[in-house]
Amino acid sequence: MTASFPESWFASYQADGCFVAAGLWSAEDLDAMNLAAEELPPFRDETFAPVMHPHRIHETFARAFSHPNLVAVMERLLGGRVSGLQTQLFYCRPGTQGFARHQDNSYVQAPVDGFASAWLALQDVTVENGCLTLYPGTQREPILPVEPCPHHAVQAGQDVNANRIQTVVPSQYQAVDCPLKMGEAAVFHGHTVHSSNPNRSSGFRRALLMTYLRRGESFRPGENAK
Fold it and tell me: Which among 97, 100, 162, 189 is most buried, taking Cβ atoms within 10 Å?
């Protein structure tokens, strides 16, 4: 049975293109995800590289991805049945650079309002250890132009394209940091510009990205995500 959700979530999504959802997963769910994260190869070999599609590797992430609470939220946001598109697990060890500004739908190329993401904090996420930065209101924009990042560098433990290009954000939009408690999720529209802060702390910052498409809509599979 799914939970009832605050109407403020959906109002914020319409107004700002983002909101923070709490209570979608139980404490037991979160503990299981953290244990599962430690069973994957990048943790065991200490490369701590992001894991594409962990739901295909470990049933714990498949359960998180298909959790009735999150599916119900996405169906409300996207206006119909949804298909899970992608998951990605981030370890974000100390010293990891932040991810540059981007719109998820610039990669996915789904119809406007047909695609959304949930970024789940698997531990407390702060500005110091690499929380997201969101640009509320940018969901009203089309796919925006991009420019090369001024200090592009490939870093072990980070996506190779994390800091290659960045979205050019119109001047009327202001960046807002989005710290999260363990178990909270930042939910955002496919056109909402976002980035992440570097991890300047002495600890890791685990997070699980889950993306959803309104069922039957077209999208670009991608070279890496497939």
Answer: 189
